[in-house]
Amino acid sequence: MEQKTAWESAVEVEAKTESERYLAKLARRAFLSLWSYSNVHTDEGRSQGKGDGKELCDLLVVFGNDVLIFSDKACEFPDHPDIQVAWGRWYKSAVEKSVRQLIGAEKFLKSHPGRIFLDKNCSVPFPFQLPDPTSARFHLIAVTRGSYAAAHEYWDKQSSGSLMIDTSLEGRAHLQEPFRIGWPAGKKRFVHILDEMTLDILLEELDTVPDLIAYFDAKERFLTSVPLVTVAGEEQLIARYQMSFEDGQHVLPAVPDGVNYVALVEGDWEHYHASQQRARCQADAGSYMWDALIEYQSRFIRSGEAGSPFFESASIDDHERVVRALAGETRFSRRILAEAFRYALSQSKPGHKFARIMPSAAHPHRQYVFLTVPRVATLDYQDYRAARVELLLTYCNGLKLKFPDTLEVVGIASEPLVEKASSQDFLFVSLDQPLIPEEERALREACDEVGIFQDSTMVAKPFQAFEYPQASRPTMSADLGQPAFMNRAMRRAYESQQKRAKGKPKRGR
Asked: What is the model's pLDDT at position 478?
């Protein structure tokens, strides 16, 4: 049995509590194991190399310039006859403590990025270089469990038990407003507050880093677009985002000029969940082959077995950059790319290579090359791999001749599926510099030599894909109204109405 690396051993240590283990499971499925780390520690508190380090956060995801910091607090909701007293106690133990931990973790990561470890003994350093604090984007996420059942009762069982978003609340003003969340860290620092219901929904609906970051960006813009926004629950915001498009991208409602209050009320999630979600999930099923491909290569990186055909001493960060390009694709893009890769793997004709060129649906200036090359039995396997990599490199560089706007290419080479054994080679090629005449001439000669990118054989095939199957593409139901945009007078009338009828805002018929 091969000995595991310290990195492999560290990531196999389970989180301490059941809720933290559940969070880690969701995160590794959504963000993948190479970028998700539970219970990372700092060397604070250690003296002369002895003692345990201090836990930084419950989950840390580092993906390029994006750093996601999670705090997980599972707190039983207090049994007290006064709901404000019970809510206040729960809020302090679940939300306030989480926010303090998150703010502290962010500050430490910015000041001491080299003092982060995967284990409490601080013997296994964090495997990747953290982004420069001046360019890094930190996202703070507090997972607060325990309020759902009490909230469901509080809303007279007429609404979900998710926490309501209310941007009029700041700091300790939350103590007077049960089950409403605004700005627990103040308006200068955005913190995403999730409960046991909305955590599951969020990481099921937006289960890639780029999808989640895009939603967070849209959410922060929307909630800061006017002085007051109320949303009946995070799930309603997610549904609205998933059902709204502009230029092919998911969006949240644009707020008209002169508006200072926006309300998103209940109904969107129920409509979306019943009509579109299942159809999209079925369409996405094939995309998880892409995730499996990333995880397969990630194991070699953690074990130290990942090699480079061009550099004897490629760093972990070099290997990570290649697979991060694959993981930087959205779920919809992964669906398209996985289908193209499967098609390339299915092509097998002895003595004939096959290449499928596919643009990224998520990155306008990125192309993919999926290359399959049958192996000649008489050829040594290492020689076969070397020749295959050289061919893949020629394909990747040669794309610049046919697609001048291409700035980067990801190449994957493999044997066809019919082969008894298979391996994969991954390349990431930056083409952000224009070709000088000498380079262009040499590249054309290289392509001509192996017979690729010839005008006579280049055939453009029309391709069209939809995120949602056309039979169930998102539409706003007749039962669902538009967001409520209000001026000050309308807002006062609305607030008076809500005070008279306890409960989350309901959507009228």
From this structure: 37
Cα(61)–Cα(59) distance, integer angstroms: 7
Which helix (DSSP H) or strand (DSSP E) does residue 116 occupy?
Answer: strand 116-117
> What's the token pair of residue 386?
């070397």
pTM for the full model? 0.90
- Domain containing 347 equals 285-450
Does residue 269 lie in a domain region?
A: no
Same domain for 292 and 405, yes or no, is yes
pLDDT at residue 88, rounded to an integer = 96
- DSSP letters, 92-139, are IIIIIHHHHHHHHHHHHHHH-TTSEESSTTS-SB-SSPPPPTTT-EEE
**Which residues lie below 8 Å from residue 314, measured CB to CB, with a gap of 6+?**
306, 307, 308
Residue 147 lies in a domain: yes
Give me the amino acid identity at 91: Y
Smallest CA-to-CA distance from 214 within 249, 254, 165 is with: 249
Query: What is the distance between the alpha carbons of residues 163 and 198, in angstroms, rounded to a whole number?
Result: 9
User: How many CB atoms neighbour CB 243 within 10 A?
Assistant: 21
Specify whether 183 is located in the same domain as 289: no
How far is the C-alpha of 491 from the C-alpha of 498, rounded, in Å?
Answer: 11
Dist CA 236 CA 348 (whole Å): 48
DSSP state of 92: I
Tell me what pLDDT residue 509 has. 28
Q: Which residues of the chain have pLDDT under 70?
A: 1-2, 276-278, 308-313, 456-463, 469-509
